[in-house]
Amino acid sequence: MKINWKQKLSSRKFWMAIVNFVTNIMIAMNVPDNEIAQITAIILAGGGLIAYVFAEGWVDANRENNTID
After folding, report:
1. 2 located within any domain
2. Residue ranges of the alpha helices (H) in 1-69?
3. CB-based contact 50:8 (threshold 8 Å)
4. Counting Cβ atoms within 10 Å, is residue 31 exposed (0-12), middle (13-18) or buried (19+)?
5. Residue 3 resides in a domain
6. Residue 22: which of 53, 46, 50 has the closest Cα?
7. Under a CB-based contact definition with an 8 Å cutoff, are residues 14 and 24 in contact?
8. What are the CA-CA distances from residue 32 to residues 1, 11, 43, 44, 60 (Å)?
């Protein structure tokens, strides 16, 4: 089974799973709430940026082929 990383990295569900995992680990390690909030914001911002880059690449590639669905 081959993982489609392009699809995974552009998935909001994937980034929410990452945030959930990291947040729970930080809570278990007694990390202060403000640090948890900052790290969560950084992860979500990175995920949003990656999703945007992939989406724009898809749109640009399909625009050249004139095959946007």
Report:
1. no
2. 5-9, 12-28, 33-65
3. no
4. middle
5. no
6. 46
7. no
8. 39, 28, 17, 19, 42
Predicted TM-score (pTM) of the model is 0.68
d(CA 15, CA 21): 10
Per-residue model confidence as pLDDT tens digits over 22-56: 999 999 999 999 999 999 999 989 988 888 888 88
Amino acid at 56: E
DSSP structure class, residue 29: T
Which two three-digit tokens encode residue 8?
A: 């995974």
Which pLDDT score, from 0 to 100, does residue 68 have? 58
Residue whose tokens read 């690449």: 57
Host domain of residue 19: 9-65
